[in-house]
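Quick note —
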Amino acid sequence: MRASLLQIDVDEAESVGARRRRVASLVRQQTGSDLVILPELWTTGAFAYEAFGTEAEPLEGPTYEVMAEAARDAGVWLHAGSIPERVASGGGVGGASGGGAAGAADDGAGGAADSLYNTSLVFSPTGDLVASYRKIHRFGFDKGEAVLMGAGSELVTVRLPGTTLGLATCYDLRFPELFRGLVDAGAETLVVSAGWPERRRSHWTLLAQARAVENQAYVLACGTGGGHAGVPQAGHSIVVDPWGEVLAEAGAGEEVLTVEFDASKVGVTREQFPALKDRLLGVAAPRR
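Predicted structure written out below.
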């Protein structure tokens, strides 16, 4: 399988519309890849908190339209990163992943506020939306995303020819139970879309390798370059195999990281070193 991770530089001088068009053009260039992955909140920047409300869009909004067409034109499976999704008050939760408690943004009209989510979109090579995932673990503690956006509540996997993807977003990487749940749901390739800060880059690499080793799965983690609202980004998108070996790693700036990997290695690894069968906690009963 051939995957391309598009490590986008979110330049504040570039409009959201211009960035959508530019990134769509980059996606169209990946015609030799099976899977293309974009970072978290690349339309606004993961730390551009003020833009969450102003640039939020419905699930099937402008980013959906542009990315669906790009996936279809390139003939690729496209994890289109995440968007600030707006769900109108009283309009239901929508999306393939469901939702939890909703964050709020001022509707500007004195009525009930809309709900915002950090939502990832996955498209098939025909341009159909096959999955959406609302980020479960929101970063910021008592500010930023943690108070501006609602939390998702459902794990999401996507079946591709040859492998099953498990979806996660940025801060999720720190919570191993989420990834174990994805593996229990059949995931063999763990995709992490992120806007990870440079000051914690060592954690990014360490955690990506740890999630791969403990779950005996591939980890494809795509971050952003440049900076978001003055917060320098780590870049260094990374692909890790089921033994924890780094197959490819990007630099700090905007870059297309392309790697070929053997998806069948997951099954081979789990058979040769069947550690997952020895689990005693978090399962209904020992497996042997």
